[in-house]
Every structure is written in C-alpha cells, then in structure tokens.
Amino acid sequence: MEVAMGLLSRLILKVGDLLVGEYKLQKGVKGEIMFLHPELESMQGALEEIATAPPDQLDKQDRIWASEVRELCYDIEDSIDTFVVRCAGGAPAGTPDGMRGFIHRSLDLLTRLRIRRQVAADIRDIKRRVVEAGERRERYRIDVARPAAAVDPRLLAHYRKATELVGIDEARDEVISILMEGDDQVSNQHGKVVSIVGFGGLGKTTLANAVYEKLKENFDCWAFVSVSQTPDMRKIFKGLLYELGKNVNDETLDERQLIDQVRKFLQTKRYCIVIDDIWSVSIWDMIRCALPDGTGGYIIITTTRIFKVAEQVGGAYKMKPLCLDSSRKLLYGRIFSNDEIYKCHDEFLAEVSDRILKKCAGVPLAIVTIASLLANRGRNKMEWYEVCNSIGTGLEYGLDVENMRKILAYSYYDLPSHLRTCLLYLSVFPEDYAIEKFRLIWMWIAEGFVQHEVQGKGLYELGECYFNELINKSLIQPVYDRYDAVIESCRVHDMVLDLVRSISSEENFVTMLNNEHSTSQAKKVRRLLLRSNMVDHDTPCASMSMQQVRSVVAFSLASNLMLALGSFRVLRVLDLGNCYLPQDCDLKHLGNLFHLRYLGVGKTSCAQLPDDVGNLRYLQTLDLVGTRFGSLPSTVVQLRHLMCLRIDQHTIVPNGIGRLTSLEDLSTLYICDSTNITEELCHLTELRVLEIFLVAANDTLGRSLVMSLCKLQKMQSLTVWVSGGECNFDAWVAPRHLRSLQLQCCWFSRLPDWMAPSLLDLTIIQISVRELHQDDLKILGRLPALRHLYLMLDHENLKIPRRFVIGTSSFPCLVGCRLLGFLGAVMFQQGAMMMLTSLAFTFHAQEVREITSSDGRLNLGLENLVSLQHVLVYFRPRGASEMEVEEAKAALSHAFEIHPNQPYYDIWC
C-alpha cells in the first residue's frame, strides 16, 4: 500500500505537469487527464485513510483495491514517462546533417506522432480502468464488524520468568549502577533517567522489567506503563494512576486534569516508573509533564527503538546484543530439555548452530523464533541447515514467526510511506551484504523515491537524510569506513530482511530469480533481482515479459539478459556491478534504454562503453569502477542530467567534461600533463564529492588545478592523489561545509588560516604542512567533529627540532591519528584525545634521554591516551649510537607494555 501511496504522490505532480506543460497532446487527451488528476487525489486520500488501520485488521476488499491502484499507478507513470522521454527529449546523439539528417528528423517526427496517439490510447484505457476499479470496490463493499485487536506479543516480555532470561544479568546490573550511582542523590530530591534504546526484538522491555523488579521495592510507589505507536494519552495517564494505586473512575477528566492528578500524587513520593516503547519526542514531553522532580527522589526508565528519542529523554543506554555463549544457551534452552542441553555442546550441531546464531546476530527475539522452528526437528542436522538457509529468504510460517514479524513490523509501519518504499528496496540485496550508501541513495533517486528537494538540500542530501533516518529507527545497521569517521555502507539484519522480503512479495515490489524461487507469470515484474546459483540461466529471462521492469540488479547473470535489453521499455536502474558478463557479450543495446537513470557495470569484462551511451539523456548515475576502461566515449559529455560519475583512476575522460554541470560526485578524475581538464573543472560548481588522480604534476598544472578548486564552493569531500611531483596548495581556500579533506603530496607552507573550529563538519584531515607551530596544533585540536588526522610535516628535511604538546581536552572526537615528519617529540597531556584508538608517530632515538624520567620512563604521556589500542612507531636512528638506539627501542616497548590497555604496537626502523 505504501508503494501505491508513493507512486500516487509522484503521479499527481506528473499529471499536473502534463496539464500545464507545453506538450502537443491529441485533442481530447487533456480532458481525460483533467479527469485523472482529481481521481488520483481522491485515491491518495482513500489510501491514507486505509493506511491508518493495522495491517492485520485491513479489509480484504481494501487490500485488493490498493493492489489494483498500485498496478494502475505503475502503468500510468510508465505511459507518461514514455511520452515525455520520446517526445520531449530532442534529437538523439549522433544525428547526421544534410539530406540524411532531414530524413532522420522526418522519421523522428512521425515517431513522435505515433507516440502521441499511443499515449492518448493509454490514457483512455487507464481512465476506463480507474472507473472500473472504483465501481468494483463499491460493488463488493460489505460492512462487517472489525475483528478484535490482536494481543501485542511484546506483552509476553513483561511476564517472562526470571529463570527463562539469558544473558541479561550484566546489562541489568549496568543500568542499576547508572540509576543508583550515589543513591543519596536519588533520595535527596534528585532523580535519574535512563533510556534503553536498540533494535526491535533486542530485549529492551525485558531488560527494563528486570531492572524494575529489582529496584521497585526500594521506593514508595512504582508503575510500569506501555505507550506504543498510537497512544491514547488519557488511557496512559489513567493506567499510570492505577499502577500507582490510585483508581480513577471519572470519565470526564481530560489529559491536563489527569496530568495534574499524577503530579499531585507523586510530588512528595520517592517513585520508580518505567515508560515502555516511546516512539516520539512529543509524546515523551507530554508524559514528562506528569512526572515531577518532587521532594522524594525518583528513577525513570524508558525504552525506545529511536536514537533521537533516547537522546532527548536523556541517559541513553544502548542495548547490546547477546554474546555467542549466551545466544547458544538461549537457543538450546528453548529447544531441548534440561537433560538434553548438555549433550548439545558437541561438534554434531556446533557448526550449523553457530551459522544460525551468526544470522540472529545476538537478537533474543530472533533466537527464540528460530528455536521454535528447530524444536520439532530434534538433532536432525540436515533439517537445521534447511532452517539456517531459509533465514533472510523467507521463513516458514508459524505462530512464533508471525509474532516476530509483528514486533519488527511496528518499526516498519511507523515509517512514513516514502521511507517504507526506500526500505523495501533493500530486498534487492542479498543477506549479509554491505550495501554502499552512495549506491543505494542514487538507486532511490533513479527510482523516484527521493522526489522533492528541500531548500538548501539537493536530492542526494535528502536521500542521505532518509538513509540516516532508517539508521536512527534501528532498521538498518551502519558500517563505518576504516577511519571510523563516515558511514559508508549499511547492512540489514536477516530478520528485518525476512520481513522486508515478505512485504515486498505481497506488494509485488521485487521479483527474485534463482534456482529456488521464480515469479508468478500472472504478475507483472516491476523489479528483477538475479541471484547466484542459477542452474538454468536462460529459462527465466526467456519466459518473462520485460516491458514493465524498472530495475534489474544482478548478482549472477543470465546469459540472454544482455540480448533482452532492447525489450526493457521503462528500465530506470541497471546494476551489473556484481557480476561478470560473458566474453562475447557487449553493451550495444544500452543506447535504447531511454528511461535509464542509473547504470552500474563495474567488474564486467566489457572492452568499452558504447558511443550511443550519449542517448541516455536522463541518466543520473554512471558507475564504471572496476571496468578498467582506458577512456570514456566522447558522447558522455552529452549526459546533461548526470549527477554521479564514478570511474577507475586511470580512465581518461573526454574533453568537454565541463559541460556536465549537474555533476555532484566525480571520482576518480585522471589528470595528466595538460591543463585542459583542470580548466574545465571550474564549471562543475555543483560538485560535492571530488577525487582526483594527478600524474606528472608541475607548477602550471598545480596552479590551474588550485584555481579551479577555489570555485567549487559546494564541496564536501575532496581527495587529491599526486604521483610524480608535488602541488602547492597555499592558494586554496576550503569551502564552508567541507567534511573530508585528503591531500597526498599537496603541500601547505603553514597551516592555512581557514583551518578553524568553525569548520563544524570536518571529520577527516590528511594534509602535508612544511612548518607547524604549537598554536597550529591547538587550532586543529579544537575542530569539534574531527575523527581522523593524518598530519605530515617537513620538519625532518628542514631540520626544525620542535617539540609539541597535545593539550587537555584537545581532539575530543579523534579515533585515528598519524603524526609524521616531526623532528621533536609529541607529548600527550591528561584528558587529550580521549577517544583515540589508533596512533602512528615518528620518533627519533636521540630524543629518548631528554624525555626520560629518573625512574627510566618516557615522558610522552602515552598513558593518558585512555582508549589506545594500536600503535605504530616510525623509528629514526638519525646519528644515534647503537646503544642509544637499543635504549630508545626498549623505552618505547616498556611504555606500551605498562600502558593500562596494553595496546598492540609495532616499531618500524
């Protein structure tokens, strides 16, 4: 249903554009479209009303109608897009001149007339189908009583016996320690709040209840109330009063009066309250009004799946998954009797159970659900493997599976429709797959899921907000880069993937083809996922109609897919980046995919991109990383809608790249010798991400590059790798919203003046500075978001023996640091770099005696780096005697060995 709602939102805008745009529609077609516009708006209103009902209580006729509307919307959008693409796109690439050009343009005019006639026929047919769908819905509407609301399966956690809980003691004691730290404060008119936050099914309610049961007797009064997604606030406050021992019979009291009663009752009490399952900050704010600071002290425990809510509530406690031992204990404890449990720790089931538990990822709900499926299989190893292989690809039906899906579905149905559609799109990726963020967002954009630009934000940045919101809702798991500074990928928990695929199948959203699953021929295929292990590669593609397919994502390639490209009439996404094309295949049909917005052909064995790629006038993303193409065809510069171009670092771009003024992401741009490319670069003013590989750098090329870069003021990430020379970057000024700066062999004479704490978004710095001063290091230390620092100095070559001190509170967020080229020692004060885990630095043997204390310890302050885990020392003898070298190495080794964390270290000479 959410798919239909998203489609309708786009369609209403597109139909409106048809009415006001300068399109040469056939006579009478505008009238048909004017009829469709209010009909679509009415459909949208009806769907929004239907969507308010819980899915398991939705009327069957409403479901059927919603499915019919969804398919109608697909067909309407395909028809409109076909008209716009074919009639408003202009002449294709390579149109000849002269008589041949006249003939070509005449044939094109006839084609457009034919397209207009076809669109007119399509619109009339769609109008008929819209009318029939509405009449059919009314004809078969029967008013029946709604079924009683189903019991919320999360209630079971509240009444779980303590003997059934596994691995919760440590978490319970941690939360109690936080709440009761300095209990004299709690008893002296102060309170503590802890918000337990985490993924659905992780056991938040169970943990909150365990803490509650352990502590409540220490208080005058206590209460445990659940909120849920659509709370009845009067019911919540009455329930709170009832739990506190004060019954309310007056049905006329409103929320304000009930809040006053709760406040009055608690004002002089020492109380303990659990508010379970909060979904919004506004609801928490209202509940908080009823909980006074009072005179007796209090503790409040909340649970939520949403990190922003937890942060607003305060005292966020991130729920941890179960460890492997506790997971195994929970699994076996649910399957076997007490006598049998101890027999299970042999090798017979160890491998398969570890595979199952890896997929469950320490989520108790997932483990218990899988245990229910295994309970009737005894110790049958092969049947255990069958269950393991089904996780993430569609679990068999059962009450526990149904309950698990219901619990996870609360998070799904809490999303707005556009985010639900974005989440469903994750079903095109395999389980345990690391999905690159940029790839996913550009696919969303290509499909039209990210539609409306917000003031100050482009489509990609809006898509980034969608991505972050799914992380915030605990529906996808972030995967950070090697600096632990930027989220570059995400994964989907297998249980969430199972839910998403289940809904995707119901919505006819994605069709997965492999040797185990195939599509129903009765349904139109809208998105096609080609998985590995396909035995009969040719049959599925040969037997299916491809005309309505919008996305093809291949992790294995049917050999006849490339031949079938010509039949993909409305294809928007073609991603072949995870498969290898046969040697005899090429991409010659690409130029006919006029609707294509996203093309990924990385790691294929094709020799070259065809020239007619220039026909793809609506292409937004072109990902060629891994193709090893020597160059791009000259027609690439005709792709005026292209926003993302990703190529290998040795692929040569054609002259005229400056015409691609919509580009936001360009990596990697190969520049060698000539300044032609650098001079064109300044026209790409929309660039947010730029990666450059500069070969044979010289002063002229360097100056030209820096001048162009100064004009790119929307840059958020800049990477420049120089091979065979150096660049002077003194004249470059960073744009205000820079997040990542990585410059190799690009030198600043001094730390630039623009490097200031006002660069709030800067998370990664890799720069080279000829000469650095202590004040410069202080400036860097005040950058509020800096996570990784790679600082190369020229002090060794310039013979500047300067020592540096990293002061207290400097670099508060830094996790990785490399300090190279220093001729003097760098020392760390207490409170510096509190989050640093990885450190690399240059150390000179001659320094050791001057910075060694009387008891033989180095005075570098390494013990003050409280999070340190890994150290690499670039050791420089530089004229020291053999004895001094050995003394220095021994002193360094001793400093690491006595460090409280005992970090792993390596000393490179």
Structure description:
This protein is an alpha/beta fold and 909 residues long. Among the domains are: 2-139; 155-318, Rossmann fold (3-Layer(aba) Sandwich), CATH 3.40.50.300; 325-391, no CATH class; 404-493, Arc Repressor Mutant, subunit A (Orthogonal Bundle), CATH 1.10.10; 765-909. Helix content is 38%, strand content 15%. It is built from 28 helices and 28 strands. The strands form four sheets. The protein has an 18-stranded parallel β-sheet that branches. Strands 2-3-4-1-5 form a five-stranded parallel β-sheet, sandwiched between helices. A three-stranded antiparallel β-sheet has the order 6-8-7. Helix 11 (281-289) links the parallel strand 3 and strand 4. Helix 1 (2-20) runs parallel beside helix 3 (60-87). The longest helix has 42 residues, at 98-139.
How many helical elements?
Answer: 28
So what's the overall shape? globular
Helix content: 25-40%
Average pLDDT over all residues? 82
Distance between the termini: 64 Å
Task: From the 3D structure, determine the CATH topology of the domain at 155-318.
Answer: Rossmann fold
How many beta-strand segments? 28
Sheet with most strands = 18 strands, parallel
Low-pLDDT segments, ≥5 res:
90-94, 102-107, 142-149, 515-520, 533-540
What's the CATH C level of the domain at 155-318? Answer: Alpha Beta
CATH superfamily name of the domain at 155-318?
P-loop containing nucleotide triphosphate hydrolases
Tell me what the CATH architecture of the domain at 155-318 is.
3-Layer(aba) Sandwich
Structural class: alpha/beta
**Roughly what fraction of the amino acids lie in strands?**
15-25%
GO biological process, one term: plant-type hypersensitive response
Pfam family, one: WHD_DRP
Domain Disease resistance protein winged helix: 428-500
GO molecular function: ADP binding
